[in-house]
């Protein structure tokens, strides 16, 4: 018996688009990552929307937008409603990534693909796991176990092990890093010997990495030369992933008095920098053994930075004295502070721009990596600015009108509600304000319409109450926030907000608009790519494949050339290789001659089920396979959005005509242990004991023994006891 396994590549196949795959194990559909590129490709979302309501679980590998960027949109706008599994750091840092992404976009354009509420709603659905903590699926996924294993690359990074009980073990491992780093251990993929299916990426198949010492020296030299020449250094980093490695490394360099860096400034600039560092401080157990030991021994937290100043806006950064090194998000330089600083600093030949990762093709960072500096580039410059002059007056006039309309509606609703709540008096009586009111119409029990007040208009504010009395307003009891008096560190100025982002430079209550201009910039600053991606390179991938020896390999995400090279290496390691194209579904089932068939109602209604072990029931089927035309869709898949291509014919099992049903020998289904049967006999007050591997019952008159072929044989004289024992023995089996 084996499972039917299919993989549908929504994105991230034979190219560098973000990873997003639907893995089907029998009826269970699991979404493996849901990354979104820097330009928010809508084609990818349209493809994914078709499958949203069929997804039973989501597995997230890393906290960056490349692996979970589409999650807020899927939950907030597409109605994705299923458990989402991730490690604790992926949950926390993923939120930081998405907050920063939203704020960076909002600061330069009217961004409406998702809101911060969508981010919160999406992350509320996440089931947080620790490494090696297995979780068993229920319902359709009964028998499937999910286990997160360490992957390196980013804090909380995960290799997912998906196991179907007694059958398949599927490993989903993309972007992993086997090398130990300053703040992370490497992955231990080679421990997973001979998986039946490995899903991995070919992104780095032909990439050769520099040695760590060479890379670090290159960074150090670049920074020192630039700072000594009076220039500033912009290092484009992500929000809460690889930035931890760089921040930790640079702060250590600054602590070394001989480095000559103490005279210069070091800053981390993103919208959530304080929160990122706070979370990093609380997640030391997810980091490298070296950091763990130093924390446990000397109790010094490696992310208690002495020299790295945390900034959340350009205004705060401007207070940091120059020359300075700034770690700014985002790595692609398409939005965020890294783009703003690039626009400011790229014209000065004394400055230096350091790019730390190869982002998607078409982004500014990738363009600079491939073509370098010392040239003119044309950029779209988008900014959010305050409204001024006539625009501001027009905006204020509209707002005033809106507020007046709102006030008018509130007054009307207040009047109507107060009328219904006040006692209604019959006949000529009193109005609301103890004044006699002349009846204008025929008296009746119900009030016909709203009356004009016989006095100057006055709206009486009714006290809102619930069943316990007056409603308490929390804002009446809030203590006014006071700023701390100590001004020794930037961190003290920030109040810790776990679930909110810091305000952008322009407060939200000030009216703003977005402008866009095309500008040609001259890049005079030096542009350098220094690899801090933290991924295994081609040579390492080859060795890992040789050690793992997987039976089947699915290669995803990587150029055609990289994919072909890794495919050859996987085949030489003895694996069957599958390469899906984007939008394709491939069948990676172990057994080649295995098919799914539907049982017809006529067949099911005629089956005679016997209770087996546990909750299972078994029946003997005499049927023939026929191909039927598919007229209506399956009830499960029959949603409007489902447009999956199905073949015209579906295989079904039809009952055989009675005259064609061949007889069959009675079959006993179970694997009985004689020791268990002995306990059952004892419960029924039938004495029994083992002797020479035979279970003797009823004073050695009846023997129950196991045959070499595994069958159980009952021997003895025909008697009342014999039939009792036989009946008890039959009860242990499902008989069909």
UniProtKB/TrEMBL annotation:
One of its GO terms (cellular component) is mRNA cleavage and polyadenylation specificity factor complex. Pfam families: Beta-Casp (PF10996), CPSF100_C (PF13299), Lactamase_B_6 (PF16661), RMMBL (PF07521). GO terms for biological process: mRNA 3'-end processing by stem-loop binding and cleavage. Keywords: mRNA processing, Nucleus, RNA-binding. Residues 406-429 are annotated as: Disordered. One of its GO terms (molecular function) is RNA binding. It is found in: Nucleus. The keyword Acetylation does not apply. Residues 243-368 form the Beta-Casp domain. PANTHER family: CLEAVAGE AND POLYADENYLATION SPECIFICITY FACTOR SUBUNIT 2. Belongs to the metallo-beta-lactamase superfamily. RNA-metabolizing metallo-beta-lactamase-like family. CPSF2/YSH1 subfamily. This is Cleavage and polyadenylation specificity factor subunit 2.
């Amino acid at each position: 018996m084996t499972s039917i396994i299919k993989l549908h590549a929504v994105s991230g196949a034979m190219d560098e688009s973000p990873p997003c795959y639907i893995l089907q194990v029998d009826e269970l559909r699991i979404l493996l990552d849901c990354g979104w590129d820097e330009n928010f490709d809508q084609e990818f979302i349209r493809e994914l929307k078709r499958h949203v309501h069929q997804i039973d679980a989501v597995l997230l590998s890393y906290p960056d937008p490349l692996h979970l960027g589409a999650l807020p949109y899927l939950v907030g706008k597409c109605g994705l409603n299923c458990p989402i599994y991730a490690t604790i750091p992926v949950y926390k840092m993923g939120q930081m990534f998405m907050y920063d992404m939203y704020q960076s976009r909002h600061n330069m354009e009217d961004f409406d693909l998702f809101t911060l509420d969508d981010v919160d709603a999406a992350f509320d659905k996440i089931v947080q796991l620790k490494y090696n903590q297995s979780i068993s699926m229920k319902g359709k996924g009964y028998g499937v176990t999910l286990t997160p294993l360490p992957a390196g690359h980013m804090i909380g990074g995960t290799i997912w092990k998906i196991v179907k009980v007694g059958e398949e073990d599927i490993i989903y491992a993309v972007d992993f890093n086997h090398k130990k780093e300053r703040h992370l251990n490497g992955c231990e993929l080679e421990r997973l010997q001979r998986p039946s299916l490995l899903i991995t990426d070919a992104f780095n198949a032909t990439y050769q990495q520099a040695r760590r010492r060479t890379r670090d020296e290159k960074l150090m030299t670049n920074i020192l030369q630039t700072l000594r020449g009076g220039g500033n250094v912009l290092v484009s980093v992500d929000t809460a992933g690889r930035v931890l490695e760089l921040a930790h490394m640079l702060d250590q360099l600054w602590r070394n008095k001989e480095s000559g860096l103490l005279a210069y400034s070091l800053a981390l600039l993103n919208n959530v920098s304080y929160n990122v560092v706070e979370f990093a401080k609380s997640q030391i157990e997810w980091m490298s053994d070296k950091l763990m030991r130093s924390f446990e021994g000397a109790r010094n937290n490696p992310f208690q930075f002495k020299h790295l100043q945390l900034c959340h806006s350009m205004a705060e950064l401007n207070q940091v004295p120059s020359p300075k090194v700034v770690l700014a998000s985002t790595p692609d330089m398409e939005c965020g502070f890294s783009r703003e600083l690039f626009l400011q600093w790229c014209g000065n030949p004394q400055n230096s721009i350091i790019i730390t990762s190869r982002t998607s093709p078409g982004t500014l960072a990738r363009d600079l990596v491939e073509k370098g500096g010392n040239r003119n580039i044309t950029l779209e410059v988008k900014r959010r600015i305050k409204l001024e002059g006539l625009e501001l007056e027009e905006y204020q006039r509209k707002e005033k009108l809106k507020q007046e309309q709102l006030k008018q509606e509130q007054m009307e609703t207040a009047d109507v509600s107060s009328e219904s709540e006040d006692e209604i008096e019959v006949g000529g009586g009193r109005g609301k304000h103890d004044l006699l009111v002349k009846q204008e119409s025929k008296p009746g029990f119900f009030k016909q319409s709203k009356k004009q007040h016989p006095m100057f208009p006055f709206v009486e504010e009714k006290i809102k109450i619930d069943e316990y009395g007056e409603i308490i307003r929390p804002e009446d009891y809030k203590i006014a926030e006071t700023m701390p008096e100590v001004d020794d560190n930037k961190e003290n100025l920030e109040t810790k907000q776990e679930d909110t982002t810091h305000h952008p430079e322009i407060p939200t209550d000030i009216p703003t608009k977005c402008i866009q201009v095309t500008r040609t910039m001259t890049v005079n600053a030096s542009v350098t790519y220094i690899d801090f991606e933290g991924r295994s390179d081609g040579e390492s991938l080859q060795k890992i494949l040789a050690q793992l020896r997987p039976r089947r390999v699915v290669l995803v995400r990587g150029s055609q050339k990289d994919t072909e090279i890794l495919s050859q290496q996987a085949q030489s390691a003895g694996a069957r290789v599958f390469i899906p194209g984007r939008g394709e579904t491939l069948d990676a089932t172990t057994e080649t001659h295995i098919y799914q068939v539907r049982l017809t109602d006529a067949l099911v209604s005629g089956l005679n089920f016997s209770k087996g072990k546990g909750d299972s029931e078994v029946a003997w089927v005499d049927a023939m396979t026929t191909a039927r035309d598919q007229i209506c869709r399956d009830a499960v898949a029959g949603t409007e959005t489902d447009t999956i291509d199905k073949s015209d014919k579906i295989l079904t099992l039809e009952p055989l005509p009675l005259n064609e049903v061949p007889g069959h020998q009675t079959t006993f289904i179970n694997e009985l242990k004689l020791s268990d049967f002995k306990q059952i006999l004892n419960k029924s007050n039938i004495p029994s004991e083992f002797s020479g591997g035979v279970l003797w019952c009823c004073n050695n008159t009846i023997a129950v023994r196991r045959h070499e072929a595994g069958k159980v044989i009952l021997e003895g004289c025909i008697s009342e006891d014999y039939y009792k024992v036989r009946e008890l023995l039959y009860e242990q089996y499902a008989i069909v």
